[in-house]
Amino acid sequence: GAFLRYMRQPIKQELICKWIDRDPPPPPPPPPPGGRKPCSKTFSTMQELVSHVTVEHVGGPEQSSHVCYWEECPREGKPFKAKYKLINHIRVHTGEKPFPCPFPGCGKVFARSENLKIHKRTHTGEKPFKCEFDGCERKFANSSDRKKHSHVHTSDKPYYCKIRGCDKSYTHPSSLRKHMKIHCKSPPPSPPPGSQGYAAAGPPDGPLPPEAD
Fold first, then answer.
1. Where is composition skewed (Basic residues) in this entry (predicted)?
2. What is the pTM assigned to this prediction?
């Protein structure tokens, strides 16, 4: 299937194991200058690299400590509570994505089964996350989209227009930026004769929220 084709496909660039063994078998070699060096064995397919790391470094059920020793791993020796969590994490380093989308023509692959499950909803149209507010029938494919939607039911609008006399507020900074364009395009009204004039509608008192990534 698609999984076997992915795992066995030749890699244009050699895959290198960067695992640093903390407890080498006896007799231990003298530590090299600057500390221990990574394994550095090279492989031509993802399947070979994954099998090597799992068997030679992660170990079997006899291992009680589940720590990633990949070179420059940001966890810095913090252990996982279970072996399967360590194996899932190692995919960040190896680039392994063993969960392909089964829908013909899609071709996307994922490192975690949970991500594949969410992705498949783009094909099936499944939306299992219903809005929790009474009377609202909106449904969503994932919980994060439902949370964003919930702002329409609340008064949580933390982004206020700071132009004098404008009381608009918004749930997202992008909506505030769109609103500010109205003030930039609209010239201030002409002051009545004999008056000292209106205060110009200048820029807001504080900086606008940063552009969303």
1. 175-184
2. 0.53
Round to whole Å and give the CA distance between 69 and 21: 7
The total number of residues shown for the chain amounts to 213
Question: Closest Cα to residue 22, out of 82, 92, 71, 55?
Answer: 71
What are the tens digits of pLDDT across the range 54-91? 888 888 877 888 899 998 899 888 999 888 899 999 99
Residues 6+ apart with CB under 8 A from 147: none
Q: Which H or E run contains 12?
A: strand 10-16
Peptide bond into 38 cis (omega under 30): no
pLDDT of residue 33: 45
3-state helix/strand/coil string of 134-187: CCCCCEECCHHHHHHHHHHHCCCCCEECCCCCCCCEECCHHHHHHHHHHHHHCC
Asked if 131 and 152 count as a contact pair (C-beta separation under 8 A), the reply is: no
- Separation of alpha carbons 112 and 90, rounded Å: 11
